[in-house]
């Protein structure tokens, strides 16, 4: 819906409180690799290394109102009707990540070139998988399944937080792959990293090319941090994804079912009332 209907109108229909942070600490690390490249493990590692709050896709679920801003930014970048690149600036990003010292994963990775320009002082990590096919299959089984059918989309029409989660996924996950991940996913992956490497070179900016198998040593050397004496953290496997998603959205789906039931009852009452008046008139 966003991209066609103004977000201000959608927010009137689906109201949620939005966070409105201002930057209260330096943004020191931009880890701009795509999801399913060890982003949660990297987020845990960056937190261990003292970079404060580390923004990650799962953390957005703690503040569902942030999805409104991410949808607004996604619409500004991708929409054919409401495109507005000037909105993709530091102040607008800080509204949702101003409390963070580092970022990983989606949705921030969807705005990676813009973030490179908005935060020139941050260190850059391009976390990736060497095996593109392995990444593709992992993404296909997890992130690409989000709101991919009417069974999961329909409840979004009856609960505001779910609605904005759906809209954010549409403009962060689907638009990056031209609305067809199965066909365009591998090409999107390669283009993402090529574009970021080119932007870093254009800025004369160093970056760390890193995989989760590389572990602590190259990461700590790049960030000028001592190597911890415990194993590199691990999180968010393919097997965990569906169960975790169900836990995160459980209450929202329950509210959607309740709201849909209320709407159904009201609709039946309205139809019965009209029928009674017509038949008795």
TrEMBL record:
The chain crosses the membrane at residues 256-276. InterPro entries: P-loop_NTPase, Sulfotransfer_4. SUPFAM superfamilies: P-loop containing nucleoside triphosphate hydrolases. This is NAD dependent epimerase/dehydratase. Keywords: Membrane, Transmembrane, Transmembrane helix.
């Amino acid at each position: 819906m966003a991209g066609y209907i103004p977000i201000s109108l959608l927010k009137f229909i689906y109201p949620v409180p939005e966070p409105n942070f201002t930057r209260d600490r330096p943004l020191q690390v931009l880890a701009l690799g795509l999801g399913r490249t060890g982003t949660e493990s990297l987020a845990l590692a960056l937190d261990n290394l003292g970079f404060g709050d580390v923004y990650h896709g799962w953390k957005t679920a703690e503040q569902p109102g942030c999805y409104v801003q991410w949808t607004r930014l996604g619409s500004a970048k991708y929409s054919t009707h409401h495109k507005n690149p000037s909105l993709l600036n530091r102040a607008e990003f800080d509204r949702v990540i101003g409390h963070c010292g580092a970022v990983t994963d989606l949705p921030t990775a969807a705005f990676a070139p813009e973030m490179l320009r908005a935060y020139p002082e941050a260190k850059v990590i391009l976390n990736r998988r060497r095996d593109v096919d392995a990444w593709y299959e992992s993404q296909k089984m997890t992130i690409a399944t989000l709101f991919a059918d009417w069974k999961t989309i329909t409840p979004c029409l009856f609960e505001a937080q779910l609605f904005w989660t759906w809209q954010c996924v549409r403009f962060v996950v689907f638009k990056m792959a031209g609305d067809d991940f199965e066909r365009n996913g591998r090409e999107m992956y390669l283009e993402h990293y090529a574009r970021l490497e080119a932007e870093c070179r254009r800025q004369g900016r160093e970056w760390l090319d890193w995989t989760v198998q590389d572990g602590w040593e190259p990461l700590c050397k790049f960030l000028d941090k001592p190597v911890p004496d415990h194993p590199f953290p691990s999180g968010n496997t393919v097997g965990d994804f569906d169960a975790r998603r169900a836990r995160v959205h459980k209450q929202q789906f329950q509210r959607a079912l309740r709201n849909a039931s209320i709407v159904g009852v009201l609709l039946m009452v309205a139809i019965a009332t009209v029928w009674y008046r017509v038949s008795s008139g």
